């Protein structure tokens, strides 16, 4: 395998792109993944795999096709959405240690950059894309600045950032197979990414585009479909890092239970067909029937010849066996993917469940989050390093203070907050002493739109009541 210097030295654009596009894993089969993810694409809806029922006449010829039941379940989406919710349902907790005000200004620039780019929502979009499409990437890039640094400099402590008048701020975008992007990460023998490339086609013409990011340059190519590649740009990468974070996983989140979901859909669809044909009572008759009762007639009697019999047809074992298999399949799908069943029917009886019991219920989902953190912790750290590097270039006033920041990021798995149990435990630990002031209690209650004014009103009313109570005691 050639190193990045040898690849960038290749004169032919086609040969260079061929080297940059060498992947260690194949491209995701996005068409198949999308068909599995969205119920409309499930096999149960494919008429070639589940054809409608042919109805023949007395002459043996087909008279019509009777539509069969097709029940497609969005279980793949549920598996992904619940995994995303437990992973990034709570914002990533970020803390920073800084040693002076200028370092505080550097942290404020990083914090505001993440806030402006809504990294909480970004994390959920990235996780959803990765779990359903098996790979995703994000690119950080500078755009013309419009008041970003003025907002930071409006604080008297950080006014020094205006001295250099920076002209750019940071934005982020997502690359994914579902958007038509073909991703080509290139790794060296130690597993470090030495280049990242992306290919896509223009929607308005037949032009194909290819761009490559390395720690030294950004290359752009284009060609007419079927033609030869031509380099259109060679831009210096001023931050000295590849401004792309890439993540991949070997298979979709539901891959291990795809066959179980297909079996469940087939089972439900077949059972629906059975209900369509046999849900209404059917009578089996032996002998000759003279007459039937009228529709809606009470005390109805069926008249028949001697020794004739009539009885309802029923299959007592079928519904129970189907119900058992449905429940078994659902349980295996949820447990195999470490997805908690939090449907209404499952949680409607949990009103008085303690915090410890809730944690035990969601233990499997939290263990899944911990496994995901092996990759996501590294991912978030790389993002932070890219933002730091950009901050040094975009504003030289804070550049000397960026490296002094000690930033820690912690993924917090989603959990229902049993505040009553927590307060009781803390109250016991403190020997029954007050844990917070009344002012803090009013602020945390969320019952007032202006907690400070509400607290002042409470104090005023208490003082008035004390004065009135004192006057009453004096009179008596």
Describe the structure.
- The protein has 476 residues and is an alpha+beta fold.
- The protein has helices spanning 4-8, 13-20, 30-37, 75-88, 101-116, 119-133, 148-153, 258-278, 317-336, 344-347, 355-361, 363-394, 399-402, 419-429, 438-445, 451-475; strands at 53-56, 62-66, 93-97, 135-144, 168-175, 182-187, 193-201, 207-213, 217-224, 230-236, 244-248, 283-286, 289-291, 303-304, 309-312, 406-410.
- A 5-stranded antiparallel sheet has the order 6-7-8-9-10, with helices on one face. A 3-stranded antiparallel sheet has the order 5-4-11.
- Helix 4 (75-88) runs antiparallel to helix 6, helix 5 (101-116) packs across helix 12 (363-394) and helix 15 (438-445) crosses helix 16.
- The longest helix has 32 residues, at 363-394.
- It starts with a helix and ends with a helix.
- The mean pLDDT is 86.
Rounded radius of gyration (Å): 33 Å
SS field, number of helical segments: 16
Q: Separation of termini?
A: 99 Å
Give the spatial strand order of the biggest sheet: 6-7-8-9-10
The rough form would be described as: flat
Secondary-structure-derived class: alpha+beta
Report the sheet with the most strands, covering strand number, pairing sense and barrel closure. 5 strands, antiparallel
The percentage of residues in β strands lies in 15-25%
Low-confidence spans: pLDDT under 50, at least 5 residues?
none
Quaternary state reads single chain
* Count of distinct strands: 16
């Amino acid at each position: 395998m050639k190193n990045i210097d040898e690849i960038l030295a290749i004169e032919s654009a086609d040969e260079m792109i061929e080297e940059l596009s060498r992947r260690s894993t194949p491209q995701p089969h996005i068409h198949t993944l999308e068909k599995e993810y969205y119920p409309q694409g499930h096999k149960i809806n494919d008429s070639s795999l589940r054809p409608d029922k042919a109805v023949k006449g007395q002459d043996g010829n087909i008279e019509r096709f009777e539509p069969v039941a097709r029940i497609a379940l969005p279980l793949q989406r549920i598996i992904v959405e619940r995994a995303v919710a437990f992973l990034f349902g709570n914002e990533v907790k970020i803390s920073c240690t800084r040693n002076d005000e200028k370092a505080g200004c550097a942290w404020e620039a990083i914090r505001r950059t993440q806030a402006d780019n809504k990294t909480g929502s970004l994390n959920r979009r990235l996780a959803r894309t990765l779990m359903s499409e098996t790979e995703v990437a994000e690119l950080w890039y500078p755009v013309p600045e419009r008041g970003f640094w003025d907002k930071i400099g409006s604080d008297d402590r950080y006014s020094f950032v205006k001295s250099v008048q920076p002209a750019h701020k940071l934005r982020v975008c997502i690359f994914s197979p579902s958007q038509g992007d073909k991703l080509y990460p290139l790794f060296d023998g130690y597993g470090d990414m030495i280049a990242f490339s992306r290919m896509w086609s223009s929607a308005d013409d037949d032009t194909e585009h290819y761009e490559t990011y390395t720690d030294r340059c950004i290359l752009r190519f284009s060609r007419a479909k079927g033609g030869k590649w031509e380099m259109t740009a060679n831009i210096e990468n001023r931050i000295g890092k590849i401004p792309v974070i890439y993540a991949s996983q070997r298979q979709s989140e539901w891959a291990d239970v795809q066959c179980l979901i297909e079996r469940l859909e087939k089972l439900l669809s077949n059972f629906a067909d059975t209900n369509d044909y046999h849900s209404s009572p059917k009578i089996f008759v032996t002998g000759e029937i003279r007459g039937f009762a009228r529709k809606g007639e009470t005390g109805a009697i069926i008249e028949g010849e001697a020794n004739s019999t009539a009885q309802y047809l029923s299959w007592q074992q079928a519904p129970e066996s189907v119900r058992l298999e449905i429940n078994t399949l659902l349980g295996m799908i949820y447990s195999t993917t470490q997805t908690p069943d939090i449907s209404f029917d499952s949680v409607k009886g949990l009103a008085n469940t303690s915090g410890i019991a809730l944690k035990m219920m969601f233990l499997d989902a939290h263990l899944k989050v911990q496994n995901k953190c092996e990759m996501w912790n590294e991912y978030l750290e790389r993002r932070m390093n890219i933002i730091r590097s950009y901050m040094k270039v975009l504003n030289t006033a804070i550049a000397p203070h960026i490296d002094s920041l000690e930033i820690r990021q912690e993924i917090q798995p989603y959990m229902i907050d049993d505040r009553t149990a927590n307060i009781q435990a803390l109250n016991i630990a403190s020997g029954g002493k007050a844990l917070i002031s009344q002012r803090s209690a009013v602020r945390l209650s969320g019952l007032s739109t202006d907690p400070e004014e509400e607290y002042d009103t409470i104090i005023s009313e208490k003082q008035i009541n004390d004065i009135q109570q004192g006057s009453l005691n004096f009179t008596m």
